[in-house]
Amino acid sequence: MLAHRRQAVQKEWSMLWGIKVSSKVRVFLWRLARCFLTSKDVLLHRNMSDSSACSICGAGDSWRHSLLECNMARYVWALEKDEITEHICRIDNQDAKGWLAAVMKSLEHEDLVQVTVTLWAIWYARRKAIHEDIYQSPLSTHNFVTSFVADLQLVQPKVKDRPVVQSSNTCWIPPPAGLMKMNVDAAL
Questions:
Q1: pLDDT tens digit string along 116-135?
Q2: Using alpha carbons only, what angle is made at residue 61 by residues 56 and 63, rounded to the nearest 5 degrees?
Q3: How would residue 181 be classed by pLDDT, with cut points 50, 70 and 90?
């Protein structure tokens, strides 16, 4: 039983590290899964904040609130495909790692890339707003995500055609008189 659970956890981590996004987005996802994102509830738990209220809307802050439920996040998600937004919001798992695993298992890779980049962009825009007082419009965040995903698709390695090996149709050429010739291949 324990070995089966360990194997399932390892598969989840492999899925996370296998998402075709840049390493900074994968590190963000790893931090999310490990509860290392500094939402106000985490800061309060670590005695680094006096309140767990969201700095943007005033509601109780958590990873889920920051990335899905805060007004700032909801406006960005409103610009994404409705089916994807409804799907990720329906996954009712308060544990970030469990939620992320459910998202990874249930979405096609193309949609998963879109979701993960959107999560990362929302977190980035949120940090800019909270720490630098720079507010980005939801449309700007959405356009950034669209551009970022398009750039990712451009750098995907394309399947290359195998080089055509020209076979030489030349005949065996005998050595000059008085010499020996030995033909070998790489298997020798």
A1: 999 999 999 999 999 999 99
A2: 110
A3: confident
Give yes or no for a contact between 20 and 156, defined as CB atoms under 8 angstroms apart: yes
Position 81, amino acid: K
Partners of 53 in beta bridges? 60
SS3 164: coil
DSSP state of 57: T
- Counting every residue written for the chain, the total comes to 188
DSSP state of 109: H
- The amino acid occupying position 28 is F
CA–CA dist 102, 90 (Å, integer)? 11
Cα(114)–Cα(148) distance, integer angstroms: 9
Q: Are 181 and 174 in contact (CB under 8 A)?
A: yes
Prediction pTM value: 0.77
Give the C-alpha separation, 76 to 29, whole Å. Answer: 18
Q: Which amino acid is at 53?
A: A
User: Residue 61 burial (CB < 10 Å; 0-12/13-18/19+)?
Assistant: buried
Give the SS3 label for residue 53. strand
Over residues 133-164, the pLDDT tens digits come to 999 999 999 999 999 999 988 876 655 555 55
Rounded-to-integer distance, Cα 40 and Cα 46, Å: 10
- Within 10 angstroms of residue 72's Cβ, the number of other Cβ atoms is 21
